[in-house]
Protein 1
Amino acid sequence: MRFQLLGPLSLHDGPESVVLQPAKPTVLLTALLLHANSVVSADYLQRAIWGEEQPATAKAALQTCVLRLRRLFTKHGVTETPIEAVPGGYRITAGPHTLDLIGFRERVRRAAALSHDPHAELAALRDALALWQGPLLANVRSDLLHRDEVPRLAEERLRAVERLGDLHLRLGRCGEALGDLWEVTRAHPGHERFHEQLVEALYRSGRQAEALAEYRRVKEYLLQELGVDPGSALQRLELAILRGDDLGAAEPAARPGGGQVPVPAAPLAAPKTPELVTALTAVPDFAGRADEVAALTAHLTADTAHRPGGPLTVVLSGAPGIGKSALARHVATRLADRFPGGRLLVRMTGPDGLPYDPGTVAGQLTRALEARPPGSGTLLVLDDAVDADQVRPLLAACSGGAVVVTSRRGLAGLVATHGGRVVRLGPFRPAESHALLRAVLGAERVDAEPDEARRVAESCGHHPLALRIMTARLQTRPGLRLADSAGWLAAGQAGRLALTDAPGLSVPEVLGEALGRLEPPLADAFLEVAALGPACATDEAATALGLCEADTEQLLDRLADAGFLEEGPPGPYRTLPLLRAWAGGARRPPGGPAAHPQPADTARAGRCPHCRTGRKPTPAPHEGPRPALPQAHRTGGAPREHPPDAAGPPSARRRECEDTA
């Protein structure tokens, strides 16, 4: 049994986790765990629970809270972390394997001891920071703990994040550092060292204009909010950028106050290829998928000593935004102790949706694995693979350990040649959606409007991407009722959900990019099939598409393999609610009637666009040249309007093809 303090207070037992409800025993447990292995005075515990104005019966009530907490431990099988009554107060015993806070501090100390090896220190810090799982103590109602303890813990994390940024810059991994630095500078706008790191990383990545713009932004913030100019380090950095100095990868020089100053050194060219192999980070507020987590954990921790050939492999497939990467990262984070060689994230696809060259990825992966201790098992997450051919060279580079491949495709060919387990993810179950809402928004807010919370989840199609976006919107709008959001979503808005400051968290962006990976005929066909309703049979789709049933079945099967449809023969094909809601908007240009995309216009090339006969259909009387048939925009936007087809409806064209075969 493990306790999680670095996030909402929760108990973890293997794949099972329980987020404790906001209550007085929860405050008591938090106060004890924050000072684990030390005596915590009864007076401090009473102030943590009731504040400065304590009831007259506080001492007796504290004893009652201890009894309730011990009953909670018994209920959940907690035996290795006893609560002891000692003179003057209480004490709880915990270690790095039972309390994440102790584990974090131990890993940070271990990282500091590796300062002679920056690669190893960076990996150790990544492992330490992976233990942080979201907002600190979100389910703990104690003014004292949030006033005195939370800032102290947050500062410990910020010191580790700052050191991580320094290591990235020292090793020349500027592109890898940018993601973390964008996030932390926005969350802590007054922390100048983070801004220094971001400006330097941007400049050394060849983005001089953005670096100067970021400097001006933080300068304006400091003047308006604090009435001060940027520190001397930031000012020297701006001057170096304006002069065009080369900022090398040397260890930054120390400065008074604990920060560091970038030092001009040997020229360092901006990397042409991004860092594709990085240490895994944890997923904040992960919820649901208990069955999948348990199955994956059992499979990835199976005895592989006598397994011949390559690594143990799992393929996670499913629709865009269904949570494949989050599940893979969450499981990998939980298995830190089982893979002493570490856990690495391997990016298989770029932000533009184009796959990285397998040889380039394999080269980076080989170098990363060579840095690991010999014979140590490593867990790899190959994220967003586009096909089996992209994965095979990477499996060949791994002689042991385990690999989790996430992909929108089923990768049946990879499983056929290399074996492994396949897990296809669908939407959340209603209980999982509810758990996510409570984990992110807080139990009090969700429990106050249970029916509206259910409606929000249903309107999002229980789709993890939509739920994540919706909960983020609600977090930034604490005065907004769930009922208001449920009514807004009911108007068909789920397909337009987006966060303006995070392009990756946008239903139109994610689904549009995914559709853009498909060949135009497949993209067009999906938009048409999605308009048929939640489910459709092959003959129904054939009528809508104007294709032979044999060709329609093949096309639908390819869409299912690509993650855009579910199930299929012998039953009907289904379209997930969120994809259907988005497709409805993608088919209808703003201010105009619905467009009707068709499969590729192959008629002009001498082949029938509706079957494989190789013959053109006989033109209808008085028919002129066929207009060019549109293709869906590769960015997921609406197809262009086109004139009505003079040859008649799709069903007539399909019959015409069959008659001429």
Note: Residues 143-170 form the longest helix (28 residues).
Protein 2
Amino acid sequence: MTYWIGNHDWEQPGSTPAALPIFRTTFAVDALPTQAILRVTARGVYDAMVNNHAVGAAVLEPPYTDFSRRVVYRDYDVTTALWPGENTITVEVGPGMAHVPPTPDRYQKLTRSDGPPRLYAELRLDGVVHDLSWQTSLGRTTFSSWYGGEDYDATRTPTGWRDATISDGPAISMTSAPAIEIVETLTTQAITQPEPGTYVFDLGINFAGWQRLTVEGPPGTTITMRPGEVLDEYGYVRQTSDGTGGPIWDTYTLAGFGPQTWHPKFRYHGLRYVQVDGLPHPPRPDTIEGLVLRTANRQVGRFACSDPLITKLHTLIDRAIQSNMYSVLTDCPHREKLGWLEEIHLVFGPIAFGYDVADYYRELLKVVAEAQTADGLVPDIAPEYTVFEGGFRDDPNWGSALVLAPWLLYRQYGDVDTLREHFPAMVRYVDYLTSKANDHLLDHGLGDWGAFDESTPTQLTATFGYLRAVQTLHEIATVLHEDTTPYKELSARIAEAFQRAFPRYTTQASCALALELGVVPASSRGAVLQQLIDDIIAQGNHLTVGEIGLGPVLRVLAEGVRHDVIWDVVTTPGYPGYAHLTTLGTTSLPEYWNGYGSHNHFMLGVVDDWFTQHLAGLQYSATDLVIRPVVVGDLTWVEAEHQDVRTAWHLTGERFQLEVTTDRPAVIHLPHTGRITAPQSAEPIGPATYRVGPGDWLFVREGESR
């Protein structure tokens, strides 16, 4: 049984305590231990200190789980924080996502509760659990809502300490995933004053994290801070239901005349701007700074090229990924903060190119599996902190993340264990979809979400998700040496039903989805691809698809070696299109083609796969490395690196030069005709194709420039 530490005021049903609970324990150490490990978690969000020093770099702990069933702990090495004699551990606990009660005056996406904030803590000195007695009071944070904001009153002093309550609670488990940390500090780029006493600080980029206030003034002065992504026409922060969400604000009440620094601790914002009221003195540039937060997954990939638009798109996509790379992959860091599942597989390539997410995805997939219901349904969000209706709860392209994401993890990192761990749950999910099918077709869900052309039938997109899940389960069963016959046969039946139901394709999305599934007869594939291309050209080189059709469109065009069409799609100005997204003044990727909704959402970011896998030519998996750069448009150079592999090509007139640095064997395809100068030890294995080993390689080709 796990024993949880609670606060009397917060444990009273229906109570609204004056501040968040704070817990402390004092213990004596006669001789310093060789190792001291503090194990901490909370139902909520904790901030732990040992002798007034933070226990580690992790913030906003613990990560998202179903807090009623499992809470994740982290072990901190606090050996150097102890001293001989009396030591003190202090932990303040906020409600976080575990407890979101109604706050009528401030924004909320949802309300829910697994119970009031509680603490779990255990101290091991040289491997032996040290007995701790905890007291509790109410701290200085007087309000915290995961959505609505946070208030801190520095004039308060915790008093009336009493013994903490002890109760049982959910199980705990250790995480190996990286924690959320402060990864960057932003300085104010501009300060405006839309009216006397109101200042707006521009931190330069849209990010997820905290604003840090540095201020001095009379005790009792209250500063109000309103975060936002955008400004209105009058220069004020604009908080809207479809963007940031609102109203959201934080307050800080000063305790004395000296300089004071504060930032929220128990929730986070998505923001670029901070509107500040109540400053006792005119601001300085360092009055507000930005603390960028994200899960500290190691950055492993970089990309740049000669085209400013493409480089900017890559930057916008990467910033959106970072801003949503929290304990789960969220859709946006402000309005929802929920783990919508389609993005974890639809945009896996750009995520895994930029960051080492092996451990991160393993923990994320545990959360997805825990969200599966008894009948096999995988809801569209995990954890399922609120139960949506219809397609917002049950869409095969969302729920199939339980099948597709482990497969992608295997392809990227060779992770067989995660496939094996979740295989039974995958089978239950496919069985659930089969139980809902009518003549092997599904007809429910959200369709091609975000599409400009909304006429693609939901039955087509839902059946696409169903068949892709079954096809992938067949591949997984093959790797695991499980019986593949049921999935091979079911795939064939679904494909036949798909062909009967959709003998013709009427939208860009339907063409691409059918081609991606392999249900188009070989004799017709060229015609369907040309139909897709013709429609794109007829639309002025614009796509009409949403997030479900987007990746398939780009992939089937690339497979058909129509990079020229993709180039035109990416670079043609106007709406809807990627070039249009770069003209909106955003510093992170917008949610929709028209720029509405969130300005920090990576849903449309799958185009980054084309940048890295084709323009840079870096096609990287756990078992193979193929370098096949594409020269298209007016590009003159592209550089990319992932892990310990780097490619860089430059085009000058008719001279094409490719540099490769690799830590493993690779197959290299040169894209030009003409005379090749290759390293003597590079093994020719086909026209303009070489096999190389680890090392640095230089290839030059002179002749036709494009």
Note: The mean pLDDT is 96.
Protein 3
Amino acid sequence: MTEENVGFGALLRQLRLEASLTIEALAEASGVSGRGIGNLERGRRATPQRGTVAALANGLNLREAERERLLAAARIGRNPRQSPADVRAFPRGIDDFVGREQELAQLAALAGQASLGRSQVVAVSGPPGTGKTTLALHAARELADRFPDGQLVLDLRGMDDEPPMPAELTLRVLKAVGVADRDLAKAGPQGHPELYRQALAGRRCLLVLDNARDEAQVRPLLPSAGGTMVLITSRRMLTGLEDVERLPIGELTPSEAAVFLTGVIGKDRADTDPDALSEVALRCAYLPLALRVAGNWLATRTGWTVRRLADRLALQERRLDALAAGDVRVSAAFDLSYRQLTPSAARLFRFLALVDGPDASVAVSAQLTGQEFFDTEDILEELVETGLLGSDQDRYRLHDLLKLYARDRLKAEETEEAAAAARSALHRWLLETAVVAGRWFEPDHGAPPPTWQGTVDLSTADHARQWLQMESINWLAAFRTAAHEEDHAAVVELAEALHWFSDQWIFWGHWPEVSATAAACAQALGDPGLEATHLNLHAWALLICEGRHHASMERSAEALKAAQRANDLPQQAWSHSYTAWALSQLGDYSAAAPHNREAARLFEAAGDMHGTLHAMSSHADTLLRAGRYEESIAEHLRTLAFLDQASDSIEPHSAAFNRTNVQTSIGQAQTLLKNWAKAADHLRIAVDLARASANPGLESRALIHLADALHAGGHQEQAREVYTQCVDLGESANPQHVVSARERLAELDQS
């Protein structure tokens, strides 16, 4: 049975049902036997001759257009030149296909829908070199048996200066599926679209439209009915197409990239130096085209080790030049898309190479070119549409190799002065914005001043936190540049503005660097008060972020001397407080006590309520570590009473931070006293407070102690759930607590 018969039969049945006729009624009206009509509809009989079709058309009382449609379907079926447009000799390059399991599963599911007679159109899009064509051809071969009328691959040459027009492509498909020249001539160019629809209406074909330029080129080629499946590949997202399944693809995973390279160069050679193989894959940024080039390079140079190529690719400034094999160059693939950009889009693309982080916001991008926010957003979306830029919500990302390409274009097409000015403007804006955002969490500051004219929304502390975290790599790079350029005042201002914010994001990973850099800049400025402040901040970072107790105490001692020179009582108090904290964690409680007392005295003398709050909490925690659990609980309750009495005098985020810590410590003490229920109550309060303030560092501490209390109290399943919640917090949590939670989950699994 061929699809031509099914096509005619399906159309005949459709027209009969639309006319509300039974087979018997149509047989009586047309003079064609009922058995013959049934066999035609089920594809069990060859397509009838013209006279039979005319009789059926009369019996159905068809209009002229419907009559021609039925006759055309019969002609296609009778045409001896017609054979399935079956491109089974697929182009090379798909035998070593790797990965894309999820995408292939999605295509298989859509092919199943097409098999039921519902046409499917899938737009496969992605940056240059991601393997869109390879995926489409591999899928076409895998799904070939589901489309017995054939598989046709058309190269639409979308990157050409003058790609083929829809009329030319339509004619090529019509000829490929066997429409007779006389029928094409009779219909004329204006009738080809209708012939095209008729030819595909009852068929089950797979049509690959490769390398589409835009929506206008492919829209006339999309079937309106029947069981045809169309796979469109394009560097553009083809946003204007409607009723289309979208399948964006990117780079391979590291493991898939290693498998791909192994398939090209051979297992023995790959196994000789797996680390070097991984480096080659990484420096190809897991882009299939780059991997192909690298693999071919090694395959044709058997005297080269994989390490030699990895080292060759290590130099960023030469990497794109190295990713060339014969007439295949990765940069050439990028050139094709870049040449199609508007001038403003090409300029922004070049300047995006100056962004230090992996992605950027609209506001960051606007600083590079000086354009208005909404104009910049439109240009970014043009880059996304052309496949040169990835997007995730309101973040935009250049693929690693595209960033190198953008850097080359920047060097070739912009002056050094223009690039330096753009980078300077971006860094200045990042530093200024980070200072305003950080001061949301600083006592006596809060919301931005009315005079501040920013391009990002910092109207709430939550917005400020989100901005600081989202742009952390970018503002950190600006901070480093300021330090390198010896802009000491800018470095010190930013570090001080982020002092209290650091409590909200304790385990970010860069606070030791920020505080150490600021301490050095403060020393260079010759201001002992600033020096004491940033030495103390460095002591905190060494103690809390890195657990380096003795190094922390050395910095505290330096800070104390500077604070005494400056006659700065609060910084003297912080020096004693951090020293006491480190000694307490080392288990030297007797040595910690006098430092705690001195810190409390100095804070009170200075009228520093935030410092006094910290000293009270620190003293209670020292009692907890010393095993004086009841006394610790009593001191923590005093701290809560102090918070309640101080009310608005304590900055809200600092108050929430301390309340969370106090409730956690009380819960920990109650656990050690084996008061499991009381412990769980306090620890649940701590978890809720930490979540409300979006502080995963504190949340992980509360969760691990809550899970321990539940486990000790005999509630193993509840404990398992809470340990899992701790693990799920990921990198923003205290890494020690995450490790402990994993270990205890493993113990529960073994019990």
Note: The beta strands are 118-125, 151-155, 206-210, 226-234, 245-248, 324-325, 328-329, 390-392, 395-397.
